[in-house]
Amino acid sequence: MSQDRLIKMVSKGDENGVGKGHVYYTTYNNKNKKDPSKKHEERKFNPVSKTHTQYVQKK
Asked: What is the reported pTM?
């Protein structure tokens, strides 16, 4: 995996806060972002809470 486009995604957790802080690494092309001031967000499967949760880009 190329290190120059690697970003760290951190989970917000589910409604009860289960799975908060779970880390997921992915690649993302920041050059094609529509609003560069916003951080990248995705919904991914969280194995700790066993549900899909919101992940936010962390620097």
From this structure: 0.75
